[in-house]
Amino acid sequence: MQDRIDALTQWQSADDALHARFLTGSFVSGVTFINAIADAAEAAGHHPDVDLRFPHVDISLTTHDAGSITDKDIDLANEISQIANSQGIDAAS
């Protein structure tokens, strides 16, 4: 599991969750990004905590009933990173 977490280069793990900030550059780009994340989250049946700000979106993933990071979080983090990449959105370092 730790190897999979370490491979998430755009994400950090802390407090039993995965966290990332994506630099959307505008409010509208942030909304478009979040809408794509919502579709992926619904399909996965797993929902992140999302905070839309100008000019970024903060995302946290954890499996609440497990109280920690699980494969569901890692899989959705990978998918969110792919969405960001497809929309030309970079993660903060």
From TrEMBL:
InterPro entries: PCD_sf, Pterin_deHydtase
GO biological-process terms attached to the record: tetrahydrobiopterin biosynthetic process
Keywords: Lyase
Transmembrane segments: none
CDD domains: PCD_DCoH
Domain of life: Bacteria
Catalytic activity: (4aS,6R)-4a-hydroxy-L-erythro-5,6,7,8-tetrahydrobiopterin = (6R)-L-erythro-6,7-dihydrobiopterin + H2O
Pfam families linked to this entry: Pterin_4a (PF01329)
A GO molecular-function annotation: 4-alpha-hydroxytetrahydrobiopterin dehydratase activity
Enzyme class: lyase
Enzyme Commission no: 4.2.1.96
UniProt cross-references to PANTHER family, sorted A to Z: PTERIN-4-ALPHA-CARBINOLAMINE DEHYDRATASE
Family per similarity comment: Belongs to the pterin-4-alpha-carbinolamine dehydratase family.
Protein name: Putative pterin-4-alpha-carbinolamine dehydratase
